[in-house]
Write a structure and sequence with these properties.
mainly alpha; 7 helices
């Protein structure tokens, strides 16, 4: 448990650096060879959002739970890749970059000249910080596991416990983030 308390500040630092990184990448041009991919991802997200409207007579709480489940299942993939030793070091920055470019692509398509204002607004939403905190937790612990594997060729039992607890904490935060995001979506319908 002592290790988790020490790591907490690093988790927060990585979270805020991640937000700053996304804000920075938003200002970069999407490379031409990646535009078709980001546009396809953007279209898929927009189509999915439009397809997940509340059904006639559906209680608001079931709609929020349904949307939260979809969001959680999508985000858990990013989390598990970020948690992986070695792979997380590459996949986490890549997922932040793709997230920024997809956000840029969606906001340009939907809001035109106001795209930057809307994109930055998304970065201020509570679910953004919760998701990035969840990802940062497992990313940091995955980096520590990578260090142990490179330096010692094994992971100490104490870190395996810390890693497992941090994964559980991260999944819990990710569930809360999905519920918050689904609630934000429901409020805006």
């Amino acid at each position: 448990m002592r290790h988790l308390a020490k790591h907490f500040l690093v988790w927060l630092l990585v979270t805020f650096v991640s937000v700053g990184y996304i804000a920075y990448v938003l200002h970069l041009e999407i490379p031409p060879f990646l535009r078709p991919i980001t546009e396809t991802l953007s279209k898929t997200l927009i189509d999915t959002a439009q397809a997940t409207r509340p059904e006639v007579g559906e209680p608001p709480w079931t709609y929020v739970l349904r949307v939260a489940t979809l969001i959680f299942l999508n985000n858990v993939r990013v989390e598990l890749l970020s948690a992986s030793p070695f792979l997380g070091i590459l996949s986490y920055p890549a997922s932040l970059t793709v997230t920024a470019w997809v956000l840029k692509s969606i906001t340009i398509a939907r809001f035109g000249e106001r795209w930057l204002e809307v994109s930055i607004g998304v970065l201020y939403m509570p679910h953004t910080y919760l998701e990035l905190l969840a990802y940062s937790i497992v990313f940091v612990e995955g980096c520590i596991a990578t260090y142990y594997l490179v330096a010692r060729e094994d992971i100490p039992e104490s870190h395996v416990r810390t890693y497992a607890i941090s994964l559980a904490i991260s999944l819990t935060v990710l569930i809360i983030a999905a519920l918050v995001e689904a609630y934000e979506i429901a409020l805006n319908l």
